[in-house]
Write a structure and sequence with these properties.
The complex is a heterodimer of chains A (415) and B (82).
Chain A lengths: L4 H16 L8 E2 L6 E5 L7 E5 L12 H14 L7 H4 L3 H14 L3 E5 L2 H12 L5 E5 L4 H8 L4 E5 L4 H10 L6 E6 L11 H10 L3 E5 L14 H4 L8 E5 L10 E5 L1 H10 L1 H4 L6 H16 L2 H20 L10 E7 L1 H13 L2 E2 L1 E3 L9 E6 L6 H17 L7 H8 L2
Parallel strand pairs in A: 3-12, 5-6, 5-7, 7-8, 8-9
Antiparallel strand pairs in A: 1-2, 2-3, 4-10, 9-10, 11-14, 13-14
Helix pairs in contact in A: 2-12, 4-12, 5-6, 5-10, 7-8, 13-15
Chain B lengths: L1 H15 L25 H12 L16 H12 L1
Helix pairs in contact in B: 1-2, 1-3
Classes of the chains: A alpha/beta (415), B mainly alpha (82).
């Protein structure tokens, strides 16, 4: 028997170690469509409970939008459910081309290539365009999928301190002897919600003849005056060479991602990116719905405006209530607690109050930086936001952290 | 050996500690296991050591454990300098 008792026990020990370290991810089941208000079975086997969802990437509230669902149905009826092929054999329909063109126009890029996910886009893009003699210079807090993609590539890589342009400059000077240079960053960093200063980064890129790649997964659809992303926010839409992004967050929330940018770079991905070449084509259902999403967002800024107003209301409410939030403008709002147990305990108490949020701690965030990450949505109404703030105030009061700054919370709970 | 220790410590502070961070780092401070240096950004440190001391550190020696303190890094440099 290949899977012997000893083998089973060894794997069980690995799982036990994960649990001992407090890193075990528990199962949580949602028994309703994704929305501001959802029904959750947690812990497993418990009766479903109605809670307000403040931890989804459903930034624009489009995950269950009736018009998006209608477009998905239309795609199913007109083009079928699956493609049973990779893109380059017989997996590309006219609507795949239409979505690529639509994304290129929306992001202000020359060309776009669809991938099954942004994780796949990030896994494939570096190997396709960078090689021996080149260097990739990455922000230290980029998303794990970018790190994986960089490691799959034969180019040398280096890192710079998070959003530290002085340090980036030093690294660009250091690597002037390389054939090609590529700076890699997130547009919005998912754990802190901070915006990469792309204007300053592009100035450095110009000075040191370097390309720029931005993963805008936590920005596409809502950051910038018309929601095009962080490059719009900083007025550098024509200065970014590559954007990778997802359709699995603000842009409908199902799945799929893309590489969008300079036509030669996108063409190289089409020819060489392994996750594109060796995985199935995006379902017509998702393609059709995502075309609708992009059309809708191109015609009105209503949803991103509402999200902006919701973010402002929540940030102001939390500050007034005495919670220690990380300052910023994005709908990712970290409630800083510094202590992992405190973050877990408070998230559990918030759930009891009907608010679904999650605690994050090392190694997901740096040691001593534990927090509850709140994510706002355009699907939230004012009463949802006010209820969430009131719950944080009640739970924060229980733990005696209202009005305390970093030093005060650490003095009370440690890190 | 003291020269190496001093140079590595200076590099670690300059490369990994933010200017406004009041964190104290010495030759015994845990770098990787405490999260000051993660496995992704460890590559900068490895490249610095290889360039500065004209050595090649094989992947099997460039482990998080071997790079966890300035003192353990000094031992790696000495091993590959001989």
């Amino acid at each position: 028997m290949a899977y012997s008792t000893a083998t089973r026990q060894a794997f069980a020990d690995d799982i036990a170690t994960i649990k001992e370290k407090g890193l075990f991810k528990e199962k949580r089941f949602i028994c309703s469509p994704q929305a501001a208000e959802i029904e959750v079975e947690y812990p497993e086997g418990a009766a479903c409970k109605k809670v307000l969802n403040f931890c989804a990437n459903n930034y624009l509230g489009l995950s269950s939008h009736p018009e998006v669902a209608k477009a998905a149905h239309a795609g199913l009826d007109s083009r079928g459910f699956g493609m049973s092929s990779v893109r380059f054999i017989c997996g590309t329909q006219d609507i795949h081309r239409e979505l690529q063109d639509s994304v290129s126009t929306f992001l202000g890029m020359e060309d776009t290539l669809l991938f099954p996910s942004c994780m796949d886009a990030n896994a494939g893009v570096f190997e396709a365009i960078m090689g021996k003699g080149d260097v990739i210079i990455a922000d230290r807090l980029i998303h794990a999928s970018l790190i994986d993609g960089i490691r799959l590539c034969s180019a040398e890589y280096d890192t710079f301190k998070h959003m530290d342009m002085k340090h980036l400059r030093k690294k660009l000077e250091l690597h002037q002897d390389k054939r090609r240079r590529l700076i890699v960053t997130d547009g919005v960093f998912s754990m802190d919600g901070d915006l990469c200063p792309l204007d300053k980064m592009c100035d450095l890129a110009d000075k040191f003849d370097t390309m720029v790649l931005v993963d805008d997964s936590h920005a596409s659809g809502f950051i910038g005056k018309t929601g095009r992303g962080v490059h719009e926010h900083f007025g550098v839409m024509d200065r970014i060479d590559l954007i990778t992004t997802t359709f699995g967050k603000a842009l409908g929330g199902a799945s799929g991602g893309c590489v969008s940018g300079r036509s030669e770079l996108v063409e190289l991905c089409r020819q060489k990116a392994r996750p594109y070449l060796f995985s199935n084509s995006l379902s017509p259902v998702i393609v059709s719905a995502t075309i609708k999403v992009i059309d809708f967002l191109s015609s009105t800024t209503e949803l991103r405006d509402k999200l902006e107003a919701n973010t402002k209301r929540f940030r102001e409410g939390m500050t007034a209530a005495g919670l220690n939030i990380r300052p910023g403008v994005t709908p990712i709002v970290p409630v800083m607690l510094y202590n992992a147990k405190l973050a877990n305990d408070m998230a559990r108490d918030m759930y009891a109050e009907g608010i679904y949020v999650i605690g994050f701690f090392f190694p997901v965030v740096p040691e001593g930086q534990a927090r509850i990450r709140v994510q706002l949505s355009a699907a939230h109404e004012n009463e949802h936001i006010d209820k969430c703030v009131a719950a944080f105030k009640k739970v924060g009061e229980k733990y005696g952290i209202l009005g305390l700054d970093k030093k005060g919370i650490i003095e009370k709970y440690g890190t | 050996m003291d020269d190496i220790r001093e140079a590595v410590l200076e590099y670690v502070i300059d490369e990994y500690i933010d200017e406004d961070d009041d964190m104290e780092v010495d030759a015994d401070t845990a770098l990787i296991s405490s999260g000051i240096v993660d496995s992704f950004s460890m590559v900068s440190l490895k490249a610095f050591l290889e360039n500065r001391y004209d050595i090649r550190i094989p992947d099997e020696d460039a482990t998080p454990e071997a790079f966890d303190t300035v003192n353990s890094i000094v031992r790696i440099v000495e091993k590959h300098s001989n």
